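Work Package 4 report. The design task specified in the project plan requires that, given a folded chain encoded as structure tokens, an amino acid be chosen for each position. We show below one input record used in the internal validation round.
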């Protein structure tokens, strides 16, 4: 693994038991993603993109093959070690937001910093900066049931990036949003990618996201069918 690569995958196979047999979701897949990339895993439902994202995030384990993320060989790490890697160096954005309903925007965003045992003053400063970066300073004390869908997703983004992770994984982050909110969300993520050099990997089939990507990895039936670099993403023209 080079110093510039955040993800290195070699001959990855992922199988799930189905009845008395196995379903092969990923088939001998190899891939490298470098620091600062803005990458999408694109493909129809069932193509393996979410499975691949979960393995990169250490949420699932490969059946065969080698997976290194941020310098850690996930094959050789315990559940606790993978959890620490996620907590300190990774951020996650899901289509369902996964906000805690009894917590305010501030408290939801603060949670990763509490888990990382940061002191109170440092936490407050970092939360305020993250919330400001997604344009929700005036909603700091609001709970999720007081927010729109777009505001909930922006809160989830602030939570994902508050600890300035090296890698953010996003699974269909605009699936529940209209076009205007989708573009607003993606522009925020592009800016964060540029300002922090955070690497982003999306799993999506949303064309609105594709317009912002600098690299598109096409998956079909568990295999990479095309890997293309986009020199001039349409959304940035």
């Amino acid at each position: 693994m080079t110093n510039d690569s955040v993800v290195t995958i070699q001959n990855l196979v992922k199988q799930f038991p189905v009845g008395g047999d196995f379903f092969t979701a990923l088939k001998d897949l190899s891939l490298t993603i470098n620091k600062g990339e803005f990458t999408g895993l694109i493909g129809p439902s069932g193509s393996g993109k979410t499975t691949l994202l979960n393995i990169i995030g250490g949420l699932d384990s490969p059946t065969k093959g080698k997976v290194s993320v941020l310098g850690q060989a996930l094959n050789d790490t315990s559940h606790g070690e993978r959890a620490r890697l996620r907590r300190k160096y990774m951020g996650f954005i899901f289509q369902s937001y996964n906000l805690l309903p009894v917590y305010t925007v501030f408290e939801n965003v603060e949670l990763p910093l509490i888990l990382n045992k940061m002191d109170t003053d440092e936490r407050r400063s970092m939360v305020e900066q993250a919330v400001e970066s997604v344009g929700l300073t005036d909603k700091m004390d609001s709970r999720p049931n007081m927010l729109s869908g777009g505001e909930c997703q922006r809160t989830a983004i602030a939570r994902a990036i508050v600890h300035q992770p090296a890698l953010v994984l996003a699974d269909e982050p605009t699936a529940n949003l209209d076009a205007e909110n989708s573009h607003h969300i993606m522009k925020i993520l592009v800016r964060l990618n540029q300002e922090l050099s955070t690497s982003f990997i999306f799993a999506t089939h949303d064309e609105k996201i594709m317009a912002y990507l600098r690299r598109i990895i096409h998956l079909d039936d568990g295999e990479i069918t095309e890997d293309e670099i986009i020199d001039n993403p349409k959304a940035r023209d």
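The chain has a mean pLDDT of 92. Validation will be extended to a larger panel in the next phase.
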